[in-house]
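Session log. Operator J.P. requested a structure for one protein chain; no other inputs attached. Running the standard single-chain path with C-alpha cell output.
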Amino acid sequence: MKIGFIGLGIMGEAMCGRIVAGHDDTVYCYDVDPARTALLAEKGAVPCENGVELAEKSDVIITMVPKSEHVKAVYTSLLPVLGRGKICIDMSTIDPDVSLEVAAMVKKTGADFADAPVVKSRPAAEKGELGILVGCDDALFPAIRPVLAYMGRNIIRMGENGMGIVMKICHNSLVGQIQNGVNETMCLARRYGISPEDFHTAVAYGGAQNFYLDGQWEKLRDEDWTTAFSIDNMRKDAHIAMRMAAEQGFAMPGAANVMRVYDEAAEKGLGREDFRATYKIVKEGKA
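Structure written below.
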C-alpha cells in the first residue's frame, strides 16, 4: 500500500515523518513550500511535483492543510485522478459543511473518504501519540485504522462523514475555555503573590486539575511562546465553533469570550505565536 501525504506544516511534517518511519512501502509527499517537501525527502519520503502526481501514485492520500478553502481546492484538483480503490483521509480541521461537501465530491468518483482531525500538538505528533477523531463509513474504518496508527494511539470513530470534524471543533472549543480559565485564575493568583509552580501544585490536588495546565504551566511561567499550535489556527477553530453554534441556534457565551480573546491576540500581531500566548492578552486585565 503506497501512501501519499499532502501538507507538511508544523503538524503534517511530524505526522508524515511517523508514517515514513513505520511504513514498509513507499510514502510520497508534497507541500506548496518546496523546502518542506525536501525535508521529508531527507527522511525517506519520495517527493512529488504536485498533489495530482502524488494522488496518481498513491493508494491512500492524506491531507493536512490549514483551512476549508485549502481542503476544497486540493480535492477539486485531485478529482480527475481519483476512483475506486483509492482512499482519501483529510486530517485538517475545517468547517464540517465543507468537509461533507468534499466527501461527496470524492465519493462520487468511487474513492473512499474519511475526515480524521487530530487532537494534541506537535510533541505528540513527533511521538506518534495523537488522538484521532474519525468520521467515515463503518466499513472503511478497519481499513484506515492501521495507517492512522502510525500517527496516533487513541483512534476513535465518531460516526459518518463530518462527525470527526464536529467532535474536533467541540474539543478545541472546550480546550479554549479551559485555557482561558487557567489564564484568568493564574493571573489573579499571581497578583496575590502565588507563584505559577504553587498555583499548578494546588490545582493538581483538586477538582480543577487539567491536562492543559499540567502541560503548559512551566512555559507560561517562563513566557515561552515557541509555537507548537498557533493562535491563528486556534482562532480559526474558535470561529468555526461559533458558526456551528449559530447554525444550531445555540448560545455559547464561554466560547464567544474565547473567540474575542483570540481576535484581540490576532489584532495585536500574536497570530503566529503559540496558542498559550493568549495569556498575554488576559494578563492585561482588559479582556
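Operator note: Residues 163-191 form the longest helix (29 residues).
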